[in-house]
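Slide 14.
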Amino acid sequence: MFHPRRSLTIISIAAVILVSTASSVTPQGHPTPTPIVPRPSPNAPNPNYPPGLQGPEQTSPDPKKMNRQNQAEIKADVEKLYELIGELKEEVERSDANSTLSVGVVKKAHQIEKLAKQVKDRAKG
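Slide 15: predicted structure.
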């Protein structure tokens, strides 16, 4: 039996499907690409957070305190350097000028050189 209502419903459904598929296809027959939406970086701060809730604020160390501490360390290193140089001088004076230097003298000279470099680097800042 022929039912006009059913055929009308089937035709209208077919028309909706045809129109919806035709709108996503370009005239050349290629489907239209979906736009790519960039995602925000996970490391970017969230603008929805109130100020101050994005983590602790970084505070820089007090430069005057650092300078005083640095000067105290330089002073202590220079005093140690002065003692080592005195010891090296005594060892060189006790050794024979015609013989080679002892291993202890070479080690002390190396220690003095290393400490002097530390003082120099600290003085630069």
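Speaker note: The chain has a mean pLDDT of 75.
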